[in-house]
Amino acid sequence: MPQLNVDAASTATITLTWAELAGFAAAASVGTLLAVQFLRDIGAARYLSRSWRIVSLWPFRSTVRATAADPVLAGVELGGTTSVAAIAVGRAANIVESVEVPTEGPEETVQRLAEWLRDKHEECGGLAALGIATFGPVNVSGTVINNAQYGVLGRTPKPRWAGFALIPAFTHALSLTHPLPMRVDTDVNAPAVAEARHDGRCARRRVVVYVTVGTGVGVGAFVHGAALHGRLHPEGGHVYAPRQAGDAYPGACSLHGDCLEGMLCARALAERAGVSPAQLPQLSDEHVVWDTAAYYLAHLCVSIACLLAPERIVLGGGILKRVSLYERVWKYFDALVNGYLGETLHAAEYIVAPRYGDRAGIVGACDLAQLAYAEVARSSRRRR
């Protein structure tokens, strides 16, 4: 009978072998009741809800081994509140296992994620590459080969993270014999590229923009086959919009006050409603704060539509879990555009939810790994 292994300090990490995971998959394929019984049998069910370190099981193969045809890709999503590591087989969307930890100081967070990835490296016969999707600002110019500042965080409001170098930190924490190929981008550029590359709604589109609203507000862009990089990367959350009539809220951004992030992020909405950010999901759809959120989000979408001319805008992040927000945004967007961008532009078709939902960021991170692996393969072929 499989056993449950629990870390010290009651972190309650569930450690299962690939064979045990295969058993869970087999049970799940028969039905939910059998899957639950399997968890009971291994003594895991009582830990699932209280662990801060959560193993997520998505559809996977019974045997996961690294091969040239199906490389095992590693992804890390560094978020404002929590961070996620995952492994995917063959392609970015085929995530087989993930772990979530709280985002604390940089050294502690990287160490926890790297420990888990190192275990997966040993179990599956070797990780092929690592993609890191992070909150910004972060230096993404060039590559780790030609830019010593590649992957170094800028003036982020996250305590202790400013100036932190991600590539050396993960390389050191992983302690692998052969360093992994790595690629870094923002936690909005990465899902923008993943949506454009893998979502049929966005396929063959030249410009796709991804917007996230949660702890912060971010904008990422896929332009003609790649993430948009210039002097830096898009920082659309820190532009300004006209205030909604009667809105006297001062703004929550520690750097700019009432920029769009300061008016629209989870903290801003919670303070307007007189609740904590964790209580926002408990508010009714009719609460006035959602109209305010839609107003500012629609202004951001109009600015994006006018400046970048995308063929699709994807709205994601924790705040957009409230599905009723989309219709409010569409109405404001159509009114603000007033037909100027073409008679065929209809907000309900133009502004959409992410294909991967909550997984958009980590799928984007795994897609960065897929791109890094592909680049190494191309370089190897050129040297032959």
UniProtKB/TrEMBL annotation:
Which PROSITE patterns did the record assign? ROK (PS01125)
Please name the Pfam families in this protein's record: ROK
* GO molecular function terms attached to this record: fructokinase activity; metal ion binding
Protein origin, superkingdom: Eukaryota
The protein's matches in CDD domains, at most eight in alphabetical order, are given as:
ASKHA_NBD_ROK_BsFRK-like
Going by the UniProt record, its keywords in alphabetical order are: Magnesium, Membrane, Metal-binding, Transmembrane, Transmembrane helix, Zinc
Name this protein carries in UniProt: fructokinase
The cofactor required is:
Mg(2+)
Stretches that traverse the bilayer: 21-39, 207-227, 293-315
Q: Does the keyword Transmembrane apply?
A: yes
Any idea of its EC number? 2.7.1.4
The answer to whether keyword Lipid metabolism applies is no
Q: Catalytic activity annotated for this protein?
A: D-fructose + ATP = D-fructose 6-phosphate + ADP + H(+)
The record's listing under InterPro entries reads:
ATPase_NBD (IPR043129), Carb_Metab_Reg_Kinase/Isom (IPR051804), ROK (IPR000600), ROK_cs (IPR049874)
